[in-house]
Amino acid sequence: MSQQYPDTLTLKDEIITAFRPIEQLFKIMDKSSPESSGELTRAYGEIGLELCRNFRRRLDAILNTQEQENDDDCQ
Questions:
Q1: Which of 41, 14, 21 is nearest to 29 (CA)?
Q2: Surface-to-core class of residue 61, CB atoms within 10 Å of its CB (0-12 exposed, 13-18 middle, 19+ buried)
Q3: N or C: lower Cβ tally within 10 Å for the chain?
């Protein structure tokens, strides 16, 4: 593989590591008690967690496509 293209797994790990604090915030919000922080905070947490799941699916799709294109270029 060319030095121009980083290892897909390494790239994915770096992106997820950078994104993890945001995901953790949403997890905390989702687990918060409606009595102490209100129902709105929990709703934001649920929305955020769904956005995180969508992000991970899109990241997988993009990196899988890029990896296939890189494999095709090497042939």
A1: 41
A2: exposed
A3: C
